[in-house]
Amino acid sequence: MTAAMLDALAALLTVQHFLFLCIGVCLGLVVGVLPGLGGIAGLSLLLPFIYGMDQTSALALMIGLLAIIPTGDTFTSILMGIPGSSASQATVLDGFPLARRGEAARALSAAFFASLIGGLFGAAVLTGFVLIARPILLLFSSAELFMLTLFGLSMVGVLSGANMIKGVAACCLGLSFGMIGAAPATGEYRMDFDLLYLMDGIPLVIVGLGMFALPEMVDLLRSGNAIADRAPLGRGWVQGVRDTLANWWLALRCSGIGALIGAIPGLGGSVVDWIAYGHVVQTTKDRENFGKGDIRGVIAPESANNATAGGALLPTLLFGIPGSGSMAIFLAAMILLGLQPGPAMADRNLDVTYTIVWSLALSNVIGTGLCILLAPGISQLTAIRYPLIAPFMMLAISFAAFQATRSLNDLIALLVVGLLGVFLRRFGWSRPAFLIGFVLANGAERYLYQAVQFAGWSFITRPVVLVILAVTLLSLWAGLRARPGGAVTVHTEGSVETARAKRLGPQIAFAVVALSVFAFTLQQGLKNSFLALIMPVSVAVVGGLATLMLLWALARGPESAGTANFDSEAKASDLGPWPFVLWFAGFIGVVSLIGFFAGLLLFFAAFLRVVARSSWIQIVALTTSAAVFVLVLANALNLVFPGGLLQDMYDLPWPFR
Amino acid sequence: MIKIRRRTAMLGSVAAGAAGLARPAIAQRAVDFSGRTIEWVIPFAEGGGSDVWARFLAPYLSKYLPGRPNVIIRNVPGGGSITGTNEFFLRARNDGSTFIGTSGSTQFPFLLGDARVRYDYAQMPPVLVSPTGGVVYLPTRHGVRNASELGKLKDRELVYASQGATSLDLVPMLAFEVMGLKVRHVFGMRGRGEGRLALERGEATIDYQTSSAYLTQVTPLVQAGTAVPMFSWGVLDANGKVARDPTFPDLPHFVEAYEMMHGKKPSGVAFDAYLAFFGSGFAAQKPAMLPRGTAGEIVAAYRKAFVDAVADPDLQAKKGEVLGDYEQGVGDQVEAMYKVATTIAPEARAWVRDYLSRNHNVRFN
Asked: Model confidence at B275, in pLDDT bands (50, 70, 90)?
């Protein structure tokens, strides 16, 4: 075993292989920094080049890319308040407030150092467990997976914002949205309005961007200033590393959580960061600062998300079962390389496994080094007036959004979810709770149905199920036990004191809309056969009751409503988010007429002239650079941009096609 | 009999297709794609089986198309591959610059008469058809050692972990139905891998894996004595008859297994329905087509290129996991195999629709 490990290291350290590893790391950094683009887009970019490469080079390239995305995406999450990929959503919660008060350097160095710990931990897990993991992974049947989704949902307990009832309602709203499309149990369609686009549900990347990126952009645009209100980066590099070292036990625990959740086939890694974040809140005594810039809120998700890759490779290599979307592409690439994953990866092909392990470890070290080198440069962005950055962000998130199905529908879905995100934020409905519900909806329903079908309702007495149930209850208790004088949950949408409204009309209207969504879920759920009916109906009932309780509280008037009364626009004196939401809607409108590329050029020019008041020279320079950037990327991905009415009528040359 | 009528109809239209193809090919100028980029549309996301298949073949196609054009893969995912295929069928340019590769999951909604389908396979000229196969196996603890002992299971309820009633797992569903096995289908698996895991955990009690997954994942179980192979789905020979899978020459195919169990050949409308979906899901699973109305000489150039590509010694050496040992449908065979993949007798279709809506609450609107 030791000899095989050293051989694999020696093979990897030849100039050619090492070069490919570095290329992978650099690409991973770029893909990670671009909001919304993650492992799926990154590996899709590489796939055309993989075929024909030698195995070690190709593995080094791909692992280099995969390993470093959750490190690179931290930049965007901390500096811009927009998740750089779905792995770093929770980092935004505390990382962005830190950046806004000038502590970006500290937040970044703590995050990078935690990422390094997580990445190395993941590589160690892969090394240690690849020989013995098979029977352990087989312990997790659909019953256990169902309990794990419940465990994930229990994180809503600490992420429900100022008001618990609203948190539960937001989570149920997320679950409802997550159930759009085919029922995993029977394939019956629900809430799909007979649209082919909704058949597979709303893509996760679009929900992530709509929930977090769009509301944040609109908010920053309203202030009109740069992101950082003080020196952009500030000092604190050493402080950040010290922070992580001081919390070494937390970083290790969260790495363990990341590797474990990643390793269980079927759960996927998209909630790892939230579970780690929930964990740190539950296990901390002084939790007043979470959501306002607590460094531990950065360390926890960042150590967990880098450890996920090491864990997720276990089922991918041993069973050929991808734990996530990016692992599915990794698997395909392995087959193109002539490698068939299976039991042999822990036996005859152990050298391949160790090549992967070393690539994982090395790329984490190299990537962390690169991130630290690049940080001062990249963080200068936060000193630039936001209206100059906004069109680039718009470009990046719409580009990421239409990776989902490559059509205009993706952009429309982004707008709709983004609008919902703006409202959730305004009325203090926790967006993290919504997202957790959305991500886990499919798994919860799928595994409940399967568990009941395989084992009957007695699945609840299986030993591992009982253990997970106990952990879930413990986690709920840890999150909810009262703190003398302290806040119970994290204020995900800002403080309730500053958002107390005198006029309750808008809030009540929004709650009524939510109630009608639950009514619709109920009606659509009841159309299904029994086992496909349980989840939608329970979600609709719980969500509906929570919303009714909220309405009841609001009905008692602005003062007696207490924490239920939340409207961050209550004291706003401007036009609210609407002018900027209209800009985005206008962009999509133009795209639907003249196609994405032409629409983009027009949008850039108009936005920079009207909102940012740029000079024409600046406009030409910025628009050209955006065009070049998007063309290079689209060319590499063989993309045809979403077309509009114009494209329907005329056959234009690429990129206008 | 339905079977005979279907075969004759098939032969008739093959002849018509070939004749239609031959006429324009003589008169017109030579096809040349030099300096062009050809898009191979795959209506699935990156990393799926069809994506791997196309990416593997693309460089060889590029090598043999006249003028050596650049062949790139364009993924158009969404709507369970209906979206991308609809769009291709309605909008693709028929100048040879783009063609599409689909899979059983695209053919099944078409065969079932799904209302969301806008494409018509009959109008698109095929240029390649790739078959695949699979093996049905059981855990050893049933005490069934081979297909002749399958009768022991007649009164036992078996559990199959399925991807869905209208997914590719419709083929095993119909096979078990024809065989007379009592099988409960648990839906919602994402890929056959999860089904295999369910069997390894003891939750599922019957399973099948595609050939390459069977070789790498199930063979170790068979060697360890925990699983035992029953039968392969088989392949279709030149006469359209089910024959043994070249990957598993020692294993009986489905029809043989039926005979071993029941002592007679299978027949009837259920068996016809099974044959249609078996053809579309396995024996001719992945067809590649040009857009409707493509000129005959372009079709001929593509067919020739695929004949040469498949014969390429480098491809033959590397095809391993991706194409397996199956004979690719190219040249003269392509029309016949394409028919198998994309046609079903009206009676058989009606029977399957009725079966699915009665037993699995599938709605056809």
From this structure: very high
